[in-house]
Amino acid sequence: MDNDETDLLPGWQSGDPAAFGALVRRWQAPIARFVFHYVGRRDLVQDLCQEVFLRVFLAAPRYQESGQFSAWLYRIALNVARDFARRRQPERELRQDSELVSDSPNPETACEQEELADLVSRAVAELPEPLRVVLVLRHYQGMNFEQMSRMLHVPASTLKSRFAAALARLRDQLAPLIRHTEESNT
Amino acid sequence: MNCTNVRERLPELLYESLSLAEAEKLNDHLAHCLACKSEFASLQDLQRTLDSVRAPDESVHLPTLYRCIADLHQKKTKRWRRTALSMAGIAAAVIVVIAFRLETRLGPEQVVFRWGTSIPNPNSVTSGKSDPMSIAPTDSPNPPASEAELQPMRGLIYALADDMDKLSREVETRDRRQQQAIGRLQENLAQVRIIMQRQFNARQVVLDSSNKGEDQ
To answer: What is the pLDDT of residues B81-133, one digit of tens each?
Structure first.
């Protein structure tokens, strides 16, 4: 995963804009995917990605090449997403109080693909943070448990348990939606 | 392998995190256990549902990013400049205090800034002939040095004070003598006046008697 950018890293660290631009182009899609699934809001992805790559640019002198650029980059993205989640915590609590009942998946109304996707992404975004980060990294980013363990400094066995718990919770929460999807597919 | 063990590992089977041998064991179990098979199918449905969510194709706008970086650098430079100016100001103040031995004193109705060697506070000088230059303890930053520097000045002032005393005594003596001389002159003048008066009277008598003789 990291082999693609090894030749770009020295240039990026010495402040070469071309190398930095190439790194951004290489990683912007995976990072956008990660922050979107983590925060569950499309409208914020651009701003959060800008923030991630801004921090990457500023942190260049502190990066020590160890063949784990992607883990380092995801850690920055995770910090940005967590900072954002902390800032919007009061807003979420308010919304949960007033809208949680009406937001539960309703197959009758959620017939459009976009609405279904919105419900799923919101269900993911409302998972407890330790479960959510494992689910997003494993399902949407395709990261294995050993990579996650190195990145999050959590044992792989713990991460596997969290991943199973996240899937179980989502399956229960999205059961009506999943049934509806299956029915419309058949 | 019982159902509990199998179900614990179904997510790993679903996401292909198991070795071939382990996956084969689980697949064998699923082939003849309907409950576990149903569980696995529900997880597969969930996986497909999660896959239905597509992330937006957002791209980072590099010019905006570079502008942000430039703004940050500018802010950092301004902050650094402000800090440097503050430090230079503090350093200059310290140099002024050290080089000019600046002394700040806050009085009841005034603030005094003074530089140079410290002088005795006039309020703390006691009057009296025995030690006219005795100085009360002050807040001088370096009292022994000031005392040593004051010593010649104190001797000079003692000498001046002695001269003044001697001079005033001489003036008093001279005044007294002059007063005595004036007294003596006044006495002499009075005696001369008395003598002249007597002489005048005697001559008057003589004149009167001579005039009487001529008339007769």
So the answer is: 899 999 999 988 888 777 777 777 777 778 877 776 655 555 554 444 444 44
* Closest chain B C-alpha to A99 CA, distance in angstroms: 22
Residues of A in contact with B72 (CB under 8 A): 54, 58
- Chain B: nearest CA to A125, how far in angstroms? 12
The verdict on residue B214 lying in a domain is no
Query: Nearest CA of chain A to the CA of B108: how many Å?
Result: 53
Count of domains forming chain B: 2
**How far is residue B4's CA from residue B20's CA, in Å, rounded to a whole number?**
20
B49 touches A: beta carbon within 8 Å: yes
**With an 8 Å Cβ cutoff, are B54 and A117 in contact?**
yes
Is B70 at the interface with chain A, CB within 8 A? no
B56 found inside a domain: no
B48 touches chain A (CB under 8 A): yes
Q: In chain A, which residues fall in CATH 1.10.1740.10?
A: 3-86
| Chain A partners within 8 Å of B61 (Cβ) | 46, 50
Same domain (yes/no): B108, B190: yes
Q: Do A178 and B64 touch (CB under 8 A)?
A: no
Q: How far is A65 from chain B (nearest CA, A)?
A: 23
**Residue B88 belongs to a domain:** no
In sequence order, which residues have a C-beta less than 8 Å from that of residue A113 and are 6 or more positions away? B52
Write out the residue range of the structural domain in which residue B135 sits.
103-198
Radius of gyration of chain B (CA): 60
Q: Say what the pLDDT of residue A179 is.
A: 67
CATH number for A3-86: choose from 3.20.20.80, 1.10.1740.10, 2.60.40.420, 1.10.10.10: 1.10.1740.10
As a whole number, mean pLDDT of residues A50-70 equals 87
The whole-number pLDDT of residue B136 equals 47
**What mean pLDDT comes out for the span B42-56?**
89
Token pair for B15: 């996401």
Q: Smallest Cβ distance to B53: which of A32, A121, A164?
A: A121
Q: How far apart are CA B149 and CA B155, in angstroms?
A: 11
**Least confident interval from A48-62, A169-183, B30-44:** A169-183
Task: Give the class (CATH, top level) of A99-185.
Answer: mainly alpha
In this structure, the answer to whether residues B190 and B128 fall within a common structural domain is: yes
Mean pLDDT of all residues in B153-174: 88
Tell me, letter by letter, the H, E, C secondary structure of B119-168: CCCHHHECCCCCCCCCECCCCCCCHHHHHHHHHHHHHHHHHHHHHHHHHH
Nearest to A171 among B43, B57, B64 (CB): B43
Cα torsion A64, A136, B7, B29: sign: negative
